[in-house]
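Sequence and structure are kept together here, with a separate record for every protein. An example record follows, reproduced without changes.
>
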Amino acid sequence: MRSRKPYIIFWPQYFDAKRSRSNGRRLSKKFAIDKVSLEDISKAARNLGYNVEIERNYKYSRTWWDDAGRVLIDLKGKKKNKVLLEVAKEIRKLHTKA
């Protein structure tokens, strides 16, 4: 098994506004996003200067029937919740531009 260090896993379910906290959402409704994809997360993280990898063949354990995939982000010493919020705000910016 490959070591993930220094990467931390970010699942699209963390950002999904349609999910409850018990089903995987990690953000408040205020910052949650409708229809977030792996590409949205990776593009937002890259725009913020983080190193990113996409892994498409993994499934989130709470919702194993959903679409597969996760994003690995090098946090560069920051806390996961802080980076999660930064990425969510950046995704919002990207969605408003499109």
Remarks:
- Residues 80-97 form the longest helix (18 residues).
